[in-house]
């Protein structure tokens, strides 16, 4: 079985439009694989729809305008589903901290023992 040009061109068109989406949006996060799959399948289906409707913009037998339009429909569907899906609760991040005494030994912070306590201070004793 020989792979035709439609799936290859659909992958190129889908990748281009997902790249454009990520460039405009700024990031895609964990939904990037879903965006790529939806854009690929949308571009491939758009080529089929374009062949039935008579798309004027073609590369060989591949209908670019219809493929692009349906690829954006797939991207939009994934974006809408990402908004409507419930968000998973995030696990708390573990924070590593170094105690003040270790930092005091390095000369970067004061030790808690050397800081004066707030409140009234004892008066100095008179010398004779």
What does this structure look like?
The chain starts with a helix and ends in a 23-residue tail after the last helix. It is mainly alpha-helical. Strand 1 and strand 2 (62-63) form a beta hairpin. The longest helix has 22 residues, at 32-53. It is rod-shaped and about 110 Å long. The mean pLDDT is 83. It has a two-stranded antiparallel ribbon with strand order 1-2. The protein has four helices and two strands. It has a domain at 5-84.
SSE series = HHEEHH
What would the principal axes of the Cα set say about the shape? rod-shaped
Class per helix and strand makeup: mainly alpha
Biggest sheet: strands, sense, closure? 2 strands, antiparallel
Strand line-up of the largest beta sheet: 1-2
Strand content: under 5%
> What average pLDDT do the residues reach?
83
Number of strands: 2
Task: Classify the helix fraction into a percent range.
Answer: 40-55%
Radius of gyration: 31 Å
Low-confidence stretches: none
How many helical elements?
Answer: 4
Question: What's the quaternary structure here?
Answer: single chain
Give the termini distance in whole angstroms: 109 Å
């Amino acid at each position: 079985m020989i792979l035709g040009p439609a799936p290859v061109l659909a992958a190129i068109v889908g990748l281009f439009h997902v790249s454009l989406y990520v460039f405009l949006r700024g990031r895609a996060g964990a939904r990037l694989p879903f965006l790529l799959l939806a854009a690929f399948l949308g571009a491939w289906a758009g080529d089929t729809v374009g062949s039935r409707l008579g798309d004027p913009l073609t590369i060989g037998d591949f209908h670019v305008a219809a493929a692009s339009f349906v690829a954006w429909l797939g991207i939009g569907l994934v974006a809408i589903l990402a908004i409507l899906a419930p968000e998973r609760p995030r696990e708390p991040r573990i924070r590593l901290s170094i105690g003040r005494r270790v930092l005091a030994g390095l000369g970067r912070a004061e030790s808690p023992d050397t800081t004066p306590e707030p409140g009234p201070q004892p008066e100095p004793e008179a010398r004779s």
